[in-house]
Write a structure and sequence with these properties.
223 residues, alpha/beta, 4-stranded parallel sheet, 4 strands, 44% helix, globular, P-loop_NTPase, Sulfotransferase
Length: 223
């Protein structure tokens, strides 16, 4: 019996989709809604663990997610201007660094001291503060393997939806296809800054809830 059938038969069991920003979660939510699957969505908020719930986690490689988040905010806030006043200081910060490579190269100074901490309100950029660690760090300390019914990775999304829910994803449109080149310094800074995100992926893999292909894509640090 496929997971989609099991979930439909257990309507009394609450399901929670942990929708980490910039991981394709909107496509996942849309497809699950089409199948009338009952669930709560947790998005842009800390996840409160409940032992009587089942969880679906939507996740992405940390560096890819970080790059996508910056580029998407730059488009909405600076280029389009549709959200230029949504968060105090965000527009000025995006304009100051202008592209993801410049931002990443300046996360640390020459002595290795942290300069740009996006968890600090002074350097707030939407979805950079709300990273993988933000959603999963405390949650994974308590959650049991049997409660995670599916992990859906951006990099393997079509395959994952088919495997877990028998859903054929016809399209996963990327609204922001901006090409991004990262210097070695930028990549190394991001690897260091996103260490806790990568730790979450290691924990998921150690729990046995990732496929080999998912782990390879999610843990990648070569860009």
């Amino acid at each position: 019996m496929r997971l989609v059938d099991k979930l439909k038969r257990k309507e009394k069991v609450d399901k929670v989709v942990i929708h980490i920003g910039k991981c394709g979660g909107s496509s996942v939510i849309e497809e699950l809604n089409k199948r009338d699957l009952k669930f709560f969505e947790k998005h842009v908020g800390e996840v409160t663990y409940r032992r009587n719930k089942k969880y679906i986690i939507v996740i992405r490689n940390p560096i890819s997610r970080f790059v996508s988040a910056f580029n998407w905010r730059y488009k909405l806030v600076v280029e389009d201007g549709t959200q230029k006043d949504l968060y105090l200081g965000e527009k000025e910060l995006l304009e100051k660094y202008s592209d993801i490579n410049n931002l990443a190269e300046n996360i640390y100074d020459e002595e290795g001291n942290l300069v740009l901490d996006f968890k600090n309100d002074e350097f707030y950029i939407h979805h950079l503060k709300e990273d993988i660690d933000f959603y999963l760090a405390d949650f994974l300390k308590k959650c049991k393997k049997k409660q995670i019914v599916a992990v859906l990775a951006t990099e393997t999304l079509s395959e994952d939806l088919k495997t877990h829910f028998n859903i054929t994803l016809k399209s996963h449109l990327k609204k922001n296809k901006k090409k991004t080149d990262l210097s070695n310094l930028a990549v190394n800074n991001l690897i260091q800054y996103l260490e806790k995100d990568y730790d979450c992926i290691e924990k998921l893999n150690n729990m046995g809830v990732l496929t080999e292909k998912q782990y390879q894509k999610l843990s990648n640090k070569v860009f």
